[in-house]
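job 3f2a | input accepted
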Amino acid sequence: MSYEVKEQQLMDYFKEQNFEPVRARLLYDNEGNSKGTGFVELSNPDAAESACKKLNESFWQGRKLSVNFANNK
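job 3f2a | predicted structure (73 res):
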């Protein structure tokens, strides 16, 4: 996603797409710069699966999104 996106914007985007985000978290490097990646926790597993199907490889703010389940690393 765009490096300028803030957590609230990511939450708002998922709300606009008719999902119920619980929280969003972006990742930053050691200097505090966005890595252009993050996590969105949704209200239930079915919503997460629907979000993956609907939003994966879609474009938002000029960047292609990769939306999938987080692994357990």
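job 3f2a | The chain has one domain: 7-62.
job 3f2a | closed
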